[in-house]
Amino acid sequence: MKPRLKLYMHPLSSYCQKALVALYENATPFEPVIVNLMDQASAAAFKQMWPIGKFPVLRDEDRDQVIPESTVIIEYLDQYYPGTTRFIPADPDAERLTRARDRFIDLYIHMEMQKVVGDRLRPQDRRDPLGVEQARTKMHTALSLLDRDMTGQTWAMGEAFSLADCSACPALYYANLVMPLGEKYPNVAGYFERLLQRPSFARAVKEAEPYRHMFPKA
Predict the structure, then answer these.
(1) What is the CATH classification number for the domain harbouring 121?
(2) Kind and range of the H or E element at 91?
């Protein structure tokens, strides 16, 4: 019997794309439930299930579980609905390093990118130029470290696609829109091109296209 999984999400959301990549990697059957936080009824229905009101959230009807947060969702899928692509290595040291790379990308690239983008949504008189400058500096530092570590590697942790790559897909996509990778980070730029060609991420990018106009420009 197919699992009864529902992913509460929005196609344009970077953290939702992270979870989608994992689902698409293994062709895991699920029902996407698009949440419109600007719509009162849609937001209220979502918050009944998850009062924090942030997506993505995975609902597993068969196991009666609600799983928030993209990293935890991917680990849950790897544990209960494994496929050909295993996102968490079995080796303890490799597991620790993969989790560390996932957090590194989320905390120092993904979240800093969101600070820059989020500032564009603020009223002009409430923007934070210093905060944006600090976020960009942290992103440059993190990208420099990632560029060093990607020397000679196909994926974030070597030759196997993992949780860390699910993190990198949307983080680098939107970071590239905020401050293009160009020639400054050649190893990261090459890695990003490989991610774009990965069918799972290519699908997530395509599904977000109808909503791309909502992305705030500088």
Answers:
(1) 1.20.1050.10
(2) none
